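G., the chain you wanted modeled:
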Amino acid sequence: MRRPVARNLTVLAVSAAVVVSVGAAAPPPAAQSTGGGKTPLAVGYGGAVSSVDPDASAAGIEVLRNGGNAVDAAVATAAALGVTEPYSAGVGGGGYFVYYDAKSRTVRTIDGRETAPLTADKNLFTENGKPLAFADVVSSGLSVGTPGTPATWQTALDRWGSKRLVSVLKPAERLARDGFTVDETFRSQTASNETRFRYFPDTAELFLPGGELPVVGSTFKNPDLARTYAELGRKGVDALYHGRLGRDIVDTVNKPPVDPASGWNARPGDLSAKDLAAYRTKVQAPTRTSYRGLGVYSMAPSSSGGTTVGEALNILERTDLSKAGKAKYLHRFIEASRIAFADRGRWVGDPAFEDVPTEELLSQRFADSRECLIKDDAVLTSPVAPGDPRHPQRCDSGGTAAPTTYEGDSTTHLTVADKWGNVVAYTLTIEQTGGSGITVPGRGFILNNELTDFSFAPANPAVHDPNLPGPGKRPRSSMSPTIVLDRHHQPVVALGSPGGATIITTVLQTLTGFVDRGLPLVDAIAAPRASQRNAAQTELEPGLYDNAGLRKQLEAIGHSFKVNPEIGAATGVQRLPGGKWLAAAETVRRGGGSAMVVRPVR
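Predicted structure as tokens:
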């Protein structure tokens, strides 16, 4: 039986509707700017946008102020992030779009994940019978999947938007043409990619102006990208999937324009015009699980985000986290994450190729059969073996374990709400920070290296791996854009994060901090994070690792930890009484995020 809604949920009447406000009875006071025009908290009317970047959030707000809805604003924000966050997202990537429709009170989703070439097979990343090293693949045409982002934008606008693509791309086109101010995050991300960017003359010319790292405070312009956006607006996304832009992408993937003097072996890909023409987004039902009386909606496979966050929440359902001490809360959170990742690794892949038991993974019966593995005085040994969601056995640990494979830690997330009550949570990516490192000549954007999210070889040769490459197959993702509804199907909160496989633990920890621990949304986002992904050690941010007393309590029962300086970079929006919205973003991570509303109030 389900537990009742946690006692820290305050039900507030709003007109004829009912909204669940989780945490403090009132929003926290206005937060201080994080620098560079970034403010991590905003409250007001008319809609809200939260992203990692102030120019991108402003693009979304501009569209909302001009009468656009949440979908229009989300596409505008995403396009602007392609300018200011080009190492995390853009035309050359893909992502997942979750939409709440206020009129029908339903959640719908778009799978805009990149796909492998139609010629790919399970040996895509093997050479001479052995798996290639990640470093040999990341900066190559071999790692590039068919981009899904432009198709995602057009699908969202066609189905739920109110404006045309040419209109919502205008703010980003202007931003690319006129430029944005370089901050320390942009410079440091460029610096960390400098060596491989120099392999590719077009990338070096664009992102290392004059052969040097961009200077903090300088203006960075990308006229090629401005022209690309203008072309997409004028011709539509057919310019990519059936036109000259697509041919430029194919040529670049199949013959990467590498500097011969670099000595870099940029392995060619095998992308074709047929791959682009065959690409389709998938409009599909979300995952859904019930937690503390709330409906939690997210992405179904090909992403593992919805099933893994959902399973972990179901495992935690039987523990009253609102009353648990810090050590018990973290212990339970870590163990639920460990188990959910074990099951993800065995069962989740592209459902067009794999028989993914999505419904069974999200069943409370399966979660209960796994929850009983957790002990308060001991720690499970990783890698934990998966259970069988189709035939749950109590405390079953007899399967064959497989370690969690690597995923790049870039990506970006945006969250939008409008005055009508529509909400979007959208996570998009080019995979690794800096993607493949390959810029399409004259086009102003970097191509993804998304195919590295496939397993290069079976994670465990004794077990079927659902995430091996295949023709036209989508690699498994961890992206977890999430929208939470109350019992009346009204939005409570929406959120998501970048961070590779740590996306799942970031979303899970933020949700439990908000729902169970009573943290205001901006504090739940800012709280120091832990991430356990069925590994021997749990990663802790310094804010937790340096808490010697708490860490020793957990180590005493068997936990082992290592430091991760930064996990994720979440954004979210929360529905407040009286038609108000609260937007929240990071206070420090990635230099802090940018939360904005159309008409602010204190």
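The chain is about 30% helix and 20% strand.

Shout if anything looks off.
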